Amino acid sequence: MKFRLLARCATAGLVALVTTGCLSTQDGSGGTSSGSAGDRKVEILGAFSGAEEQAFLASIAGFEQSSGIDITYVPSTSLGELIRSRVAGNNLPDITMFPSPGNLLDIAELGGMVPLDGMLDLPALKSTLVPGLMEATENAEGKTFGVPIRMAVKSVVWTAKPQFQAAGYTVPTDAAGLRALTEKIKSTGVTPWCLGMESGPATGWVATDWIEEYVLRIGGPEVYDQWVTHKIPFNSPVVKQAAEAFAEIAFPKGNVLGGREAITSTPFGTAGNSMFDSKPGCYLMRQGNFIASGDFFPKNITSSLDTSTTTFQLPPTDPSGPAGANPVLLGGDLAAAFKGDDPDVKAVMEFLSSDKFGAEWAKIGGWLSPHKTFDASNYPDQTTRDIAKIAVNATSSVFDGSDRMPAAVGSGSFWRGMTAWVSGQKDLDTVLNEIEASWPEK
After folding, report:
1. Residue 239 or residue 6, greater confidence
2. Is domain 156-328+400-438 classified as CATH 3.40.190.10?
């Protein structure tokens, strides 16, 4: 997912938490280097701003106070440009937080970023992390350059609890059950699915998530990784099968609110809001956990998730298949280091990558720990705990594929191609062939 997430936050409480430490921030125009090794100062670059920035600062305030390390956070709305200019000018930051592994590995190729194999205890981290997150930051030589600090669970289907229960519907556990539920809702004259793709210049990512969901479910994690790393062509049969599985939900007349023709022009963030009406316009929406934070769902819904919503995992196509009974598509934010010989940088990286980081953010909402060992009582509601369990209990879990692909494809031809196909401008074979042809040569 390429959309910067907005966490719900209680501003007054955050200010109180942040001011207990000695955190500081600078604007994204450049920042300053942290100085010599072990000077008790660490600079972090990132894309968190607004409510997310305050939540992040609240989450590290206690560590800064107890460790004596003075952390400067530099937010930027153009993180890629900033970090490239810093690397080119040999003005390396201490730590940078990336929204995708593809961006992280692109920067690693420029030099200066430190492989974490010698800095952190990676085997210990792997034993507590949800699989598929840290592995996405490995380069072709098998070196790890990033650790997850936040997880997004994408394989979530949302519905309005009171309306869903009043209609007598039950949560499906397999693909056949999902098809049956879709047809049952449709038979009552109501549209089953809420689906919108419009996201400004990022329009298309909603459909790429759906394709990734089904490549994982049909091909399993090994085939998924081969596709993402271009070891098999983009127009491979498994990708076409995945697209057809999505089309089975999105394209039939009466399946989606507004019809297929409205999908690409319907804003993704508010596409599901009509399911909360007393007479729902649609009942089901597949979207990541972030949709319940920020300004997407109505505020009266986000403040009462346990009583207002029901969630379930997007079912497998075949529980006995290569992806198992609980396949999960993930996203996340990742931390990378540029000062491997600084003990303070090491200490901050150890904290950010631990299951102790994020408790304050979790209590505010809009944040999931990538660790299976994180104390789930920190989450503000049972809905969030249940979504975290989807990842913890996964039989196979993978990082968002378009986030791992070269930018020319993942946030370029893949987005554009899905938009052209869903809107009916181009057929599926043409789109898949064009995306394959767009893959950069090494």
Report:
1. 239
2. yes
Residues 283, 255: Cα–Cα separation, whole Å: 10
Q: What backbone phi and psi angles, to 5 degrees, belong to 265?
A: -105, -5
- How much is the average pLDDT of 186-199? 98
Dihedral angle sign, alpha carbons of residues 136, 140, 141, 146:
negative
Which pLDDT does position 38 carry in this prediction?
Answer: 58
Is the backbone of residue 281 left (phi > 0), alpha (psi -120 to 50) or beta?
alpha
Question: Would you state the torsion angle of the CA atoms of residues 430, 196, 206, 396, taken in this order, to the nearest 10 degrees?
Answer: -110
Residue type at position 185: I
| b (16+ CB within 10 A) / e for 247-271 | bebbbbeebbbbebebbbebebbbb
CATH 3.40.190.10 range(s) for the chain read 11-151+330-379, 156-328+400-438
> What pLDDT does 293 receive?
82
pTM of the shown model: 0.91
CB 132 within 8 A of CB 222: no
CA angle 29–34–37, rounded 5-degree value: 160
Band of the pLDDT at 25, cuts 50, 70, 90? very low
Start-to-end CA distance of the chain, whole Å, equals 25
Q: Quick one: tokens of 67?
A: 């460790």
Task: Note the pLDDT tens digit of each residue in 287-340.
Answer: 999 999 877 999 999 999 999 999 999 999 999 999 999 999 999 999 999 999
CB within 8 A of 299, min separation 6: which ones? none
Fold of 11-151+330-379: D-Maltodextrin-Binding Protein; domain 2 (3.40.190)
CB-based contacts of 122: which residues, under 8 Å, 6+ apart?
116, 134, 144
Q: Which residue has the higher pLDDT, 205 or 22?
A: 205
Helical (H) or strand (E) element with 83: helix 79-88
- Half-sphere exposure of residue 42, counting CA atoms within 13 Å on the CB side? 29
- Cβ neighbours for 116, distance < 8 A, ≥ 6 positions apart: 122, 144, 145, 146, 147, 336, 337, 349
CA distances from 262 to 196, 197, 251 (A): 8, 9, 11
